[in-house]
Every structure is written in C-alpha cells, then in structure tokens.
Amino acid sequence: MPILQIKGLTHFFGGLRAVFDFDLDLEPGELIGIIGPNGAGKTTIFNLITGVYRPTRGEIIFDGVNLVGKESNWIIAHGVARTFQNIRLFKELSVLDNVRTACYSQIKYSVADALLHSARFQREEERILNEAMELLSLFNLDRLADEKSKNLPYGLQRRLEIVRALANHPKLLLLDEPAAGMNPSEISDLMELIQWVKEKFNLTIILIEHQMRLVMGICQRIKVLDFGETIAEGSPIEIQQNPRVIEAYLGEEEQGE
Amino acid sequence: MTTKDLIQLSGLKGKFQKRQWALILALVFFFALTFLIPRYGLLNEYIQLIIIYIGINIIMAVSLNMVNGYMGDFSLGHAGFMLIGAYISSILTVWVFPRNWNPIFTSIILFPIAVTAGGLAAALASLIIAFPSFKTRGDYLALVTLAFNMICVSVVQNIEAIGAGRGFMGMKKLTTMPWVFIWALIAIWVVRNFVYSNLGRGTVSIREDETAAELVGVNTRQVKVLTFVISSFFAGVGGALFAHILQFITPSTFQLQKNVDFLVMIYLGGMGSIGGSILGAVTYTVILELLREALTILGTFPIFASIPSLEVWRWVLAPLLLILLMIYRNKGIMGLREFGFLVPFRDQFGSRFWLKRRELTNANSSN
After folding, report:
1. CB-based contact (8 Å) between B213 and chain A?
2. Chain A within 8 Å of B355 (Cβ-Cβ)?
3. What percent of chain B has pLDDT over 90?
4. CA quadruple B16, B17, B18, B24: dihedral positive or negative?
5. Are A181 and A149 within 8 A, CB to CB?
6. For chain A, N or C: smaller number of CB within 10 Å?
7. Average pLDDT, integer, range A36-47
C-alpha cells in the first residue's frame, strides 16, 4: 500500500497555475526526486503536502488520511517532516533547542505539568534531552549543542535542519534543495548522508533538487515539472534520455554552464 | 581517570545544588524582611511604598516580556488587563465580600481570592487579543491591542455604577509587602517554568520564524493562546495589587502611558529575559522616583517654581529612554541572557552533562 498518494493536485495563485494535475504514488522506502526549472511548482507541492497552502483541487492521502484541510502542525505531528530551500533554523536558539523545539508534538505532559515543572515534566524533558542529544551525536553535532544555530557554518546548518526534521520520528521526509549553495565535495557527502538517513530511520523521501548529480545519483525515480505540469517521469536514465526533458531543462542548463 | 571525571561530573551538579540552596536561603531571608520592615518601621513609609510598586512592576514586566520578548509580538494592551484585574478585584473586596470579617482572615483568605479572580478575569479577556494574533503580527497586532486597551478604558469610563471616569474607591489597604513578594515570586516562578518547557520553546520559535515553527510541529495557535492567557493573568494580578495599595483607581490610570512604562522596563532590562524584566522594573521605578525627588527639590527654587509635574516629565523621559535604548543598546541590560539561578539545571548544563556521561560510559565499556 502506498504511503503517499497524491491525486489530481492543482493549485492556483490567483490566475497563476502553480501546480496542475499532479499525481504521485509513493511506496514506503522509496526515494524520488522532483526536478524542474525555477518556478515550476516544486516547492508549492511541498507547501501543499504540509498544509501551508490549501490546494485548489486534488487529494493528498498520507498513511490512509487525507491531509487536505489539516493544520500544518497536525500533519507534521503525524509523520511528515520537511526542510527548507532557504535554511529556516531558529537562529537565536541553541542547536539543542532547535531539535527540542521540534519535539513539541512528541511531548506528553500537560500545561499544568509545564507550569509547575512536575515530576512527569522532569521525566519527559529528560527523555527529550537524551533523545535530542543522541540524534545530534549521530550527525556529529553533539559537541555544538550549546552553540547558537546562527553561528554554525553553512553546511552544518543544512545538516541541523535535517536533524530537526528527524526529531519528530517522521515516516516521510521532504527535502527542499538540500544541496543549494554546496560545493562538489559537500554534495558527495550529502548524497551519502541522505542515503544513510533513509536506511537508518526507515524513511520515504521526496527530494527537490537542481543539482543533477545528486538527483541522478541517489533517486530511484524522478518526476520532471515544467510550469506546474508533469512532463516526464521515470528512472534517472530514462529522464536523461527524454527529449522533452532535455528541451525544457537539461539542455538549457548544459548551454548555461 | 574515570573517578576524577565522576567527581567533575558530580561537581557540576553539586555546584548547581549549592547555588539553589543559596537562592532558597536568600528568598527566606527577604521574605522575613517583608514582615520585619513594616512591623518595626525599618524603612520609612515612602520607601516601603516604592518597594511595593517595584514588586508590582516586576510582575507586570515579567508577564509582558512573555508576549513582547519571548514571543516577539508587540502588545500594547497590558495596562488594559491590569485595569480588568484592578476593577474586578476591587468590586469583589468592596461590594461582594463581607466587609466586617476579622482583618487577618480578610488578608489571608479573601484578598488572595480577589487577586486570583482579577487575574482570571484578565486571562479570560485576553482571549479577545489571542484570536487576532493568529492572523496579525507586529505593527498590526500593536494596533489591535492598543484599541483593546482604549476600549477597556472607555467602557469603564461609561459605567456609572462603578464610578465611571471619577474612579472607584473604598478598598482597604490589603496589598502588603509580604503579599507583593509572594505574588512576584509566583509570577517569576511560573513564567520561568513556562519559558523552560516545550511551550516556552514554542513561544521563542514563533519569534524566530513562525512558519518554520508550525512546520516542525509546534501548535502555534495553542502556544499563542497560552502565552497571552498566562501573561494577562499576571497583568490582572498586578492590577489587583495596584488597586489595593492605591485604594483608589480611575480608568485613565490605565491608558497608553502605563503601557509605555512597562515597555520601557522590558526594553531597558532586556527582551526575552526574566532577569532583564526584573532589572528593568527596578531601575525604571527608581529612576522615576529619583526624578520626582529632583523635581521637588528644584521646585523650591523660585526660578523653577512653575516647573511641570512628574506626570508631564515622564512623558518626556520614557520616550527619550526608549529612543536612546533603541539606538545604543537595543537588547537592553541583559540582552537575551539570563541569570544563572533562573535557568533550570537541564537547560543550563544538560548537554554538557550528557556528553560527560557518555564519555564515562564509553571509557568504562572499553576498560
């Protein structure tokens, strides 16, 4: 049974057609890529899945539940996590607190427990602290736990965003251009990291990316968008040979570089 | 080597516990003083009154900082909640509660009930502010809250039964130094607990990036409502204490000027810092009183005979202070920092403790 099923997803911004008739069936454990030129509607799809926008039309079934009309925090709490194209960490918060904040929906104590710092509060906070530190140590960020997140170098900020997304025990991870601004060697590290994270945390991943090397290297399946419409879908090799894709996207980039 | 580390490890906790004991002792000492000072007249009445005002202002500043500092919203309605607390508690003690009870019973049973009721009424009213805060932020929320404050004032000004613009009186002087101490302590403790919980982290994440907060799973609506409700509760408490020390309240006391006072306190002390709010409340209250003294002394000279009163000068002083603060020290005295004794162990040393413990277990397992 697919973990995510998107049917006829369509979204208009006023007269602008951002996403049109987008379909997707995602099996658990898959890693798929969505590529397309700027403004093709890729990030809009993430925003629709996570409830930032309400789609004009269409269905998003995640784990048997239709996500359309649900609050973002509800969707996140029920197993979807995402990162952002432009890093959106809580800059003034420590690395540890960035992760602990993301545990919000995991925490099982009441408002009264929080205001009184009751025994149950102490137990839960201890658990969250240990869990967050363990997660950080898996990503080699544990020694930077007390550092303000804005003070981290760029690459580590990207990594912290992934850690923060994982704090909620997601089943589906949406990565929005994780390689933006990275150099080739950093991209190689990132490719390994994504594959390792996927296995380690048993995730299904949708990846939006411009870096062809990354997408072609790790995705099992790729969807290509142009002006909100799906123009191709298939394995990396099929995509590389698809004439429409070359015309809309790959060809242009080759000339540009 | 491991034993040395263990000592270091426990030393961290030991130092913290020692400091906590020192804090508890200091609090007991000051609490005793709040009884001794009025009983034996250790300080003159005027200074006692200022200490009580400082206590009330601490409650107001600490609670306002939840919204303006930690959550990064801009509320100009805090004086409105203070008004609600002041009137509700006064109506209770003057009209509803029995007047001829034993004074001690009145002070230790009826008065706390009245103060709590004032706080609860303000908390209830804060829902009116909480809802627009879902949609508007920054300047717009400032306007909404300012409008709320003005509505509170003009509603009371038009209710004949509670004295309208002439004010409400007849309260006994129930606000004493021990009570102010206790309420200030409760306010600081509850706000500190709030700040160092998932709700507090949610509040700060809204300040940093509201959309990102929602998208890492923070229920931003829940957090906003709770922040406003708790903040307003203590504003109501502050108002109730204020009414029962002044024994006379008029709606015009709770206008924009009052809000500006509280804003100066938290900007002066430090946004997003409980210690900063306390420092700001103390500093600003003392500055105003010093100014009052200076004006009185100046007024005795014939050339300055027509010098305007403090009420006029604070309109000059407060905005001037705000402007200077914005230019030269926009994070206030404390910035985003906090006094160590206000931060729970886990939030202060939690990660270091964890790293140390792991180091020890690794060393043990490899031996």
Report:
1. yes
2. yes
3. 66
4. positive
5. no
6. C
7. 91
ipTM (interface pTM) = 0.91
- Quick count: other Cβ atoms within 10 Å of Cβ B62? 31
CB contact under 8 A, B217 and A96: no
Residue A66 near residue A60, CB atoms below 8 Å: yes
> Is A101 within 8 Å of B218 when comparing Cβ atoms?
yes
Three-state SS string over B292-335 comes to HHHHHHHHCCHHHCCCCCHHHHHHHHHHHHHHHHHHHCCCCCCC
Cα(B271)–Cα(B333) distance, rounded to whole angstroms? Answer: 9
Residue A164 CA to residue B298 CA, distance in Å, equals 60
Instruction: Give the N- to C-terminal CA distance of chain A in Å, as an integer.
Output: 42
The reported pLDDT for the residue numbered B15 is 80
Backbone torsion region of residue B249, taken as left when φ is above 0, otherwise alpha when ψ lies between -120 and 50, otherwise beta: beta
Q: Half-sphere exposure of A214 toward its Cβ, with a 13 Å CA cutoff?
A: 29
The phi and psi torsions of A233 (rounded to 5 degrees) equal -155, 140
- Scanning A169-208 for CB atoms below 8 A from B yields none
Sorted by where each begins, the domain ranges of chain B are 43-253
Are the C-beta atoms of residues A86 and B229 closer than 8 Å to each other? no
Q: Cβ(B171)–Cβ(B242) under 8 Å?
A: no
pLDDT at A257 over 50: no
Q: Residue A76: enclosing H or E segment and its boundaries?
A: helix A72-77
Cβ atoms within 10 A of the Cβ of A39, count? Answer: 14
pTM of the complete model: 0.93
